[in-house]
Design brief:
The chain is α+β, with helices and mostly antiparallel strands and about 230 residues long. The chain has 2 domains: about 1-190, SH3 type barrels (Roll), CATH 2.30.30; about 190-230. It has helices at about 105, 140-145, 155-165, 195-230; strands at about 1-10, 15, 20-25, 30-40, 50-55, 70-85, 85-95, 115-120, 125-130, 175-180, 185-190. It comes from Guillardia theta (Cryptophyte).
Length: about 230
């Protein structure tokens, strides 16, 4: 794996370690919310990946009985690996204490701004009040190996959504990435295997049809020649 401190998505949007992002969700549901913990490229299949920490909306955490603001979410320890193509766009997620009082009202009016003041523990259906922001250490995050222990509906839904987009031949474009070793580099995110197989299959079919047509023409020519000789 090659780890990066930041990447440039196909639409020109820059995403760094620590960036809060909106991710693809099933049709009819609000975007999933996460914060990028690390970014890397796989040398095996060339996919560009990230590890993100999930935030839960109040409707995703039914155990909470208190009153919440429309822009309030709950941070969690739930993390998953995701393709960079699951990102819809960056957003802002801050701890309640980080929002200056003079801009608080305007900040909370924006649909891409959120805040948290509690941690949600899904396994225990419990909530912990946080007096300070949860920090991300970029160096540690870049070196950590993503854990495969935690897998939830957010991961499967977001990944499935991307698979649907790739299956419909949506181009993924290029992702420019800067390595954590500070060596800028542009890399191309290859299309998913289903699309590649489809292209190969279509090419093979065209070749087969061409060969079949050639054989048919040669057979007809041979029959014509034989008939002429017999006459």
């Amino acid at each position: 794996r090659t780890y990066y401190s930041k990447v440039l998505l196909a639409n020109g949007t820059e995403v760094k370690v620590g960036t809060a992002v909106k991710l693809l969700a099933p049709d009819g549901e609000p975007s999933f919310l996460g914060k990028v913990q690390c970014l890397w490229g796989s040398s095996k299949d060339h996919f560009k990946m990230m590890r993100c920490k999930w935030f839960y909306r109040p409707e995703e955490a039914p155990g909470y009985k208190g009153t919440v603001h429309a822009r309030e979410v709950f941070i969690s320890e739930h993390q998953d690996e995701q393709y960079l193509t699951t990102i819809e766009k960056p957003c802002t997620i801050m701890h309640d204490s980080e929002i200056p009082g003079e801009i608080r009202e305007d900040f909370l009016k924006h649909p891409d701004n959120f805040f948290y003041r509690m941690k949600y523990l899904p396994d225990r259906n419990n909530f912990v009040v946080l007096k300070e922001p949860v920090a991300i250490d970029p160096v540690t995050a870049a070196k950590d190996r993503p854990s495969s222990a935690s897998r939830g509906k957010k991961k499967s839904a977001a990944s499935s959504k991307v698979s649907e987009k790739r299956g419909s031949d949506t181009p993924t474009g290029k992702v420019a990435a800067e390595s954590t070793t500070k060596r800028p580099l542009e890399v191309k995110e290859e299309d998913a295997a289903p699309k590649t197989k489809k292209i190969k299959s279509e090419t093979s079919e065209k070749v087969a049809e061409s060969e079949k047509s050639d054989k048919k023409e040669k057979s007809e020519e041979a029959e014509t020649a034989a008939a002429a000789a017999a006459a």
